[in-house]
Design brief:
Elements (H helix, E strand, L loop, with lengths): L1 H18 L20 H18 L8 H35 L10 E6 L6 E8 L2 E9 L10 E8 L2 E6 L3
Parallel strand pairs: 3-5
Antiparallel strand pairs: 1-2, 1-4, 2-3, 4-5
Helix pairs in contact: 1-2, 2-3
């Protein structure tokens, strides 16, 4: 039984690494309901640890009642390790992802640099800092005039993910 648990958990982890985050498909974190352990990655960790502890203890404990002790120790160990992994790895990673996102409308008034020239009536690219990240976005001159690369601009408004900019006044 412990070998099967270990194999399923390890197999899932290996497939996830090879296929690239298949555990995110249909992932249910329970929201505020407190069902954080229903994440495929945590289930895989639980299975691996439970199986590994069982495989280690079965040959070492050979007396009446050992099965119950091994099962209790295996399940408890799996829950503890999965809980610690969730608390110290997954939650901080989710927080880091959420703090790096931003509302496009909040960038109005932000200063940026033209990284790819904006031709007359055409599109170029701007680069600016937001939420600790450097972002490159398509841009158009507010008045339609060309703006060469390297010029500092201000974001005036955003429409359909295109940033309309004007040269910064010196």
């Amino acid at each position: 039984m412990y070998l099967v648990l270990f194999g399923i958990g390890a197999g899932f982890i290996l497939i996830s690494l090879i296929a690239g985050e298949i555990g995110e498909i249909g992932e249910f974190d329970g929201g505020s309901a407190g069902f954080a352990f229903f994440k495929p990655k945590l289930i895989a960790i639980f299975l691996v640890v439970t199986g590994a502890i069982g495989l280690i203890l079965v040959p070492k404990l050979d007396f009446d009642g050992a099965r119950g002790i091994i099962l209790f120790a295996s399940v408890t160990g799996g829950l503890v390790v999965a809980g610690l992994f969730n608390r110290f790895v997954m939650i901080p990673l989710n927080r880091a992802e959420n703090t790096s996102s931003f509302n496009i409308q909040d960038t109005i008034g932000t200063h940026a640099n033209v990284s790819s020239p904006i031709p007359q009536g055409g599109y170029g690219k701007i680069r600016y800092n937001v939420s600790g990240s450097v972002v490159t976005s398509p841009a158009k001159s507010e008045d339609g005039n060309p703006i060469p690369a390297g010029v500092r601009v201000e974001i005036i408004y955003v429409e359909k993910n295109t940033y309309y900019v004007r040269r910064e006044e010196l």
